[in-house]
């Protein structure tokens, strides 16, 4: 473990921000690109995870444990969100026989 | 140092595969790989508690829930809805503009200090447990209520209800 943690000693903080920004943008792209409700949900998970990674990087950078506790809370929140969201998707599928989000266009009005 | 860049490349590669895979089951499997690379990132930062929690909660619980739902819904490639080509181009363009805006604003920051683990004990269970149960005791208890309400809500939503089905 010691040798592993020494490998990050030279990574600038900017590169962590860059990685998180790219993965967050990929998540946004996924939400815009797909019509399958479950894949859209997975893109949201991707965005949540990129923020988690950035919070951990800043927590290590500042030497403050609060950031990692926040990540723990975000994970608890994500678990709750996934449970409710997937229940809603199952309910939609039962009523419309499809998980295409365009079927739900009546929600727009 | 090069380990980080290799794992970062893998994260980006697999997350692109998540949103481009035609089959939703493949999407979920790629998402599992993406989360595994995130676990490796946490291990590299010596955030051992988060690495374990990420492994158990995300890869173990959340993605299995996704897979389970997908099996219940019984999707396959034929039923996969496809967006028109122009909408796809617009979506990639919009996401790309967000990425370019974030990255170019990052450029103006200049070279930052490297991420150095000042306190090797920071991400260990002992240290995080002390912080969690002293400063963050109330949010911790409230999150248990959140999880309970989410569980009740999920059961309530997913239960078959004859009367509501008739009205819709």
UniProtKB/TrEMBL annotation, chain A:
The chain crosses the membrane at residues 13-33, 40-61, 67-93. It is found in: Cell membrane; Membrane. Its EC number is 7.1.1.-. It is a multi-pass membrane protein. It comes from the Bacteria. GO terms for molecular function: oxidoreductase activity. InterPro entries: NADH_UbQ_OxRdtase_chain4L/K (IPR001133), NUOK/Mnh_C1-like (IPR039428). Signal peptide: none annotated. Keywords: Cell membrane, Membrane, NAD, Oxidoreductase, Quinone, Translocase, Transmembrane, Transmembrane helix, Transport. It holds the Pfam family Oxidored_q2. It catalyses: a quinone + NADH + 5 H(+)(in) = a quinol + NAD(+) + 4 H(+)(out). The keyword Cell membrane applies. NDH-1 shuttles electrons from NADH, via FMN and iron-sulfur (Fe-S) centers, to quinones in the respiratory chain. The immediate electron acceptor for the enzyme in this species is believed to be a menaquinone. Couples the redox reaction to proton translocation (for every two electrons transferred, four hydrogen ions are translocated across the cytoplasmic membrane), and thus conserves the redox energy in a proton gradient. Belongs to the complex I subunit 4L family. HAMAP family: NDH1_NuoK. NDH-1 is composed of 14 different subunits. Subunits NuoA, H, J, K, L, M, N constitute the membrane sector of the complex. This is NADH-quinone oxidoreductase subunit K. It comes from Mucilaginibacter rigui.
């Amino acid at each position: 473990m010691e040798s592993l943690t020494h490998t990050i000693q030279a990574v600038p903080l900017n590169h962590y921000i860059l990685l998180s920004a790219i993965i967050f943008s990929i998540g946004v792209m996924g939400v815009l690109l797909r019509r399958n409700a479950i894949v859209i949900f997975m893109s949201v998970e991707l965005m949540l995870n990129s923020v988690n990674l950035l919070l951990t990087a800043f927590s290590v950078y500042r030497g403050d444990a609060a950031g990692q506790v926040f990540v723990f809370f975000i994970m608890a929140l994500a678990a709750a969100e996934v449970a409710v969201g997937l229940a809603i998707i199952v309910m939609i599928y039962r009523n419309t026989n499809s998980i295409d989000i365009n079927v739900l266009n009546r929600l727009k009005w | 140092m090069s380990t980080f860049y290799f794992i970062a490349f893998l994260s980006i590669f697999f997350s692109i595969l998540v949103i481009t895979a035609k089959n939703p089951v493949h999407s979920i499997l790629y998402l599992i790989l993406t989360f595994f690379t995130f676990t490796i990132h946490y291990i590299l930062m010596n955030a051992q508690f988060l690495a374990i929690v990420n492994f158990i909660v995300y890869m173990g619980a959340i993605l299995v829930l996704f897979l389970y739902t997908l099996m219940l819904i019984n999707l396959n490639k034929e039923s996969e809805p496809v967006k028109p080509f122009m909408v796809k181009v617009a979506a990639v363009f919009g996401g790309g503009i967000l990425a370019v805006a974030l990255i170019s604003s990052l450029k103006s920051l200049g070279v930052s200090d490297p991420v150095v683990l000042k306190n090797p004990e920071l991400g260990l269970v002992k240290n995080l447990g002390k912080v969690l149960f002293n400063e963050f005791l109330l949010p911790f208890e409230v999150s248990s209520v959140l999880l309970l309400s989410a569980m009740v809500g999920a059961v309530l939503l997913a239960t078959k209800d004859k009367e509501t089905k008739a009205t819709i």
